[in-house]
Structures are given as C-alpha cells and as structure tokens.
Amino acid sequence: MPFGAWQNAGVQRVVITGVGILTAGGLTEGTWQALMEGRSPATSMTVDGVGDVVVMRAADPDADGRFGRRDARRMDRAGQLAAAAAGDALEDAGPLGVANERVGAAVGCAHGGAETQDAAFRALLERGGDRVSPLSVPLGLPNTAAAATTRAHRLRGPSAAPATACAAGTDAIGLALGVVRAGRADAMVAGGAEAPLAPVVIAGYGRAGALGGTADAPEAASRPFDRGRDGFVIAEGAGMLVLEERERALARGATPYAEIIGYGASCDAGHLTDPDASGQGPALAIAAALADAEVDPEQIAYVNAHATSTPSGDLAEARALVAAGLGHAAVSSTKSMHGHTLGAAGGIEAALTCLAMGRGVLPPTVNLAEPEPEPALDHLREPREAAVDFAVSTSFGFGGHNACLVLARA
To answer: Which phi and psi angles does 335 have, rounded to 5°?
Structure first.
C-alpha cells in the first residue's frame, strides 16, 4: 500500500493541528528561539541531601492565572506543566468544533507526582501520618499529568497515562494515533509531562551514574553524541500535540503542522537500565514505525534523536539508527538545550520536529565538540535550512522500552 492510501483501507489519517511546549527555555516560541540560538538554560541547583546538581527547571506555568488558585493547588507540578502545555496546544489548534466526549488525552509521565510524593514522605517521617495530605495519593500517581489535563480542559473522551519511563511521551502519542485512526475519538491531546526535581529522584539518578555536568559550567553539561559526555541534565517540561482526523481538520479550516504516519515500539527485554548495546532493540522500534508509515528508510531526511548525553545510550542509539537504515539522515538531539525531561521527552521532541518541518529549519545539537567516530552520523551542529518530507523522533527508556514516530510534511 503506498504512502497516503490508508483512507482506502478504512483507516483514518491523522494530522497535528496544535503544538504546546513548556521547558526551561520558556513556552513554545521561547523554547524554539533558544534552539535556534544554540542556548542552554541549564543552571546549578543545591538539592537537599545531594548537593549541587545541574538541572533545567521549566518556566513558570502560571497555574493560578490559568486555572484559578483552588484548581492549581489540586495539581502536582507535573500536572500544572501538562495542563498548561495542553492549553497552549488547544489554543493553537483553534476551535475543534466537536463535543468534549469526542476529545481525549494521552499523557506520558515517568515519575508521576514526584514533588507531591516527596512532600508526603517528609511529612510522614518528620511529623507523623496524620500530617500527610489526603491529596498525596491522587496527585502522586503516574496519571497525575493526564488527570490534570483532562480536568483542566474538560476532555471527556478516551484517556490514558503511559508510564514507560523515558519512552512514555512517544508511547502516549502512538496510543493517541491509534485512537483517532480507529475513529474512537475525533481529536486527542497527546504528549508528556514531567517534574522530577525532587531530592529522592535526583539522588537515585545520581547514584545510578546517570547525571552529568559540573556546577562551574552547567550550560555545557548536556553533550549528546560527544565523546566527552558523562550523563544527562535532568529537566522539567511538557510537550503536547493536538491530533485530529485529517479530513475533519481540513474541513474546519485547520492548517496542520504535519501528519503522523507511523508509530512503532519494541522492548530490549534485557538490562534494567542499560540499553541494548548493539542497537538492535531500538532498531526494531524504528523499523516497525517505518513499516507502519509505509515509507522506506532512505526517505527519512531528519531524526530528532533521543540521545540523552549518557555514554552507553548515545552510542547504542547511533548504532540503532545505522541498523535501521537511517545512517544518511541529518541527526540532532535537542536535549542539549532543553535537558532530559524523562517521560515528557517524546512529547517535547515530537513537537519540535513538527516546528522544524513546518518552518524548514532543523535544530542543532550544541556542545558537540568531538562526535564518536563510529558509527558516523550527519550531526547537525548549527541550524540547517531544509525541506523535510519525512522525519523520525525516537524515545528509549529504562526497562528497555523503545518507541518511534514517523512524521510527514502536511
């Protein structure tokens, strides 16, 4: 079946009509401008019981102003980030013209309400069980970002909260794609959100050897694909998309950013934290997404890579891209400028890939002084003007979760 023929097989085509991003670089346009300037907003933060850590804390979501003080206090910070980014995406998409029952949400999150859980643990250990907030359970669950999004925007269609570690945002978009393709909803708000800057989370990643950088040069800490990389910069953020059935979106006058034409997933089923060093596991997810999209590997012109700046992860991904036939494509990791937002990464990076395709400019990887010599990739070290017809966004997570999206120019 050739590309674009799904409608002849009774499968709905799905376009992206709204984008909402919230990172340490700011809202959507602020984040995009930081990428075009090659600017990292990383800072050093002193964490209780840990010391100084390089982080990227998201811009203020203005939750009180957006949702009212009462409702904002009934959201964990991850929920506030998700609901804010979703609101921007919905506003960007314009009036959907359908009942709320036909609009759903899928929001990935790895750590759930980390700040809520941290506060509950402190209250229990320092003041006793009767001082633990009754909201600590509903706001601490992995679905906290999805629940906040649906409540804030009255989305009453299908809802889901993938928790596949750092692949969660991409898996959420893939799930939403399937819902709209099948006609179970006319539109879905999908992506990821994360607010992981709680001391116990940071301490755990530090003990696992996953964090990198030093307090004297935080802006240079995230170095995806660089031979000197030593770990990722932990970050907050949210990235949300509005997915719609194509013909209905066009009929209402929407201007799509891109079309989502493929989703694939796989599992390494191996090491608890380390990726498949050969790259074969992630390559399976990429191959599945390309097969779903019905495009050949050589048609992919750009890859927004998951590359987090860890020694083993980046090398495994480079091998995966080559194994999947994408060694020719231009590659960048925008995490070098917005940090590793864990479960939000897939949502943010899919959104940035949409913007790159729509604006004809591919973002770079900064702090890439000396790439790994093998396998060699076409690394973007400066923004590059390019008309891209097909692009890929990848996400991989602890537990061996691998996920991939294929986007086509609208």
So the answer is: -60, -20
